[in-house]
Amino acid sequence: MEKEKSKAKLLQEKLCIQRKNGVLRTSEEDMKLCDEYCEGYKRFMDEAKIEREAAEYAENAAVKAGYKPFEKNMKLSAGDKVYYVNRKKAVILAHIGKEPVSKGVHIAAAHIDSPRLDLKQNPLYESEETAYFKTHYYGGIKKYQWSAIPLALHGVIIKADGTSVRVSVGEDENDPVFCVTDLLPHLAQDQMKRNASEIIRGEELNILIGSRPFRDDDVSEKVKLGIIALLNEKYGITEADFISAELEAVPAFKAKDIGFDRSMIGAYGHDDKVCAYTALTALLSCKETPEKTAVVVLTDKEETGSDGNTGLCSSYLEYFIHDLAQCFGEDGRTVLSRSECLSADVNAAFDPTFPDVLERRNCAFINYGVVVTKFTGSRGKSGTSDASAEFVGRVRRLMDDNGIVWQTGELGKVDLGGGGTVAAYIANLDVDTIDVGVPVLCMHAPYEIVSKLDVYMTYKAFEAFLSE
Ligand code: MN
Ligand code: MN
Questions:
Q1: CATH class of the domain defined by 116-251
Q2: Residue 3 — pLDDT band, cuts 50, 70, 90?
Q3: CATH 3.40.630.10 region(s) of the chain?
Q4: Rounded to the nearest 5°, which phi and psi values hold at 359?
């Protein structure tokens, strides 16, 4: 009987998918490397909260690693490293490989914008002797989650004379922070009857920024005047300069370990800076010249649908590949047709508190490694880029051959919702593309959670793909 059982067990092991927590499939040594790697990730998350800062971080890191600005028709050969910055909000990096680009390149794509509250063009106002900023939320958020938390302000202001001034307030230990106010529960009877999407309405996402009046009896709106006087002193701006500004209110939280075992990281904007950081560091850590030219694109505007000239619906990636091909006297179209892309974005992790929205046999779990998602989209796979069986097979071998802990995933139960990533836009360029990424808890909340092991395995996956 005992022997019979073990035969079945052996057969089961041979024929059936064996589910096992990724930590138990990773050596203690590798777990140590994983934890060390994540220290760098946390520093990045505190330094680069918005797309401009992430783009600047990537540019600085690239320059440090010997990357040179890309120019049209420049002479390039194997081992050369180049980068291109698109309007300070998106970056493309390329490490020229040994094989000719006409055989295709390896692209890793991730986005560096995250959900947040943007200031309106005319944001500053005073009401009942307190000063506020009007906002317009960016990306899909549960609006109520953004009230009563500390907010920092990041971005850029273009002044009337065309000069620009950078803004970052709320990150330093001694900085002030800002806050969207909410009602006390004692008086929220009517508010609590509102639909959850309206508990805080869009026009109620007003950020409290000051309350001390300017000491002068001669004018009205003295609090507002006090604020603009302070801003004028600090940044040399007037109220009209907000019109040509991009100011983003983001949670002022720092990236922190989560759990007694420190196995997870809580931070603002894992979506999708976790894939941006892993792709970037994997490319920059390439010591040897890769076989295929390795390209990393860190894009903007994914959270609003990828439209606009810094999003991947625009042609900037396509133009870059065309220009790169031209440096070798090759045709951009040929390069694209033979290229492969890991389109990296976070996926929903199974949350035992809310088990009903995901289908357990096919969804992703934290600590089960990098997620490979064959298709996204919603309902009847609407809006999806569905990777071919051949390409999934190829990626499966890539993961297994390199000892990477990985899993499959999907974005929720079939009829429930869904969503898309930039994968479709790259696939539309005739590139073999598949979604990969890190499973996330509380996605799009001010504080999102990932597991360190999954972050590290995503890095390892990019490292394997980009060094091929
Ligand atoms: Mn994303
Ligand atoms: Mn997102």
A1: mainly beta
A2: low
A3: 19-114+268-466
A4: -100, 110
Q: Are strands 340-344 and 106-111 parallel, antiparallel or unpaired?
A: parallel
- What are the start and end residues of each CATH 2.30.250.10 domain in the chain? 116-251
**Do 295 and 281 touch, CB atoms closer than 8 A?**
no
DSSP code, position 232: H
271 CA to middle of ligand 1, Å? 5
CA of 273, nearest ligand number: 1
- Which-ligand-closest: CA of 276? 1
pLDDT, tens only, 424-462: 999 999 999 999 999 999 999 999 999 999 999 999 999
Ligand nearest to the CA of 303: 2
Mean pLDDT of the chain: 96
Give pLDDT tens digits for 136-151: 999 999 999 999 999 9
305 Cα: distance to centroid of ligand 2 (angstroms): 10
**pLDDT of 377:** 86
The position carrying tokens 């051959």 is: 401
SS3 386: coil
Q: How confident is the model at residue 4 (pLDDT cuts 50, 70, 90)?
A: low
Amino acid symbol at 353:
T
How far, in Å, is the centroid of ligand 1 from the Cα of 255?
18
Compute, in angstroms, the gap from residue 77 CA to the centroid of ligand 1: 34
CATH number listed for the domain at residues 19-114+268-466: 3.40.630.10
Alpha carbon of 402 to ligand 2 centroid (Å): 28
**How far, in Å, from the CA of 129 to the mean position of ligand 2?**
37
C-alpha 420 – ligand 2 centre gap (Å): 9
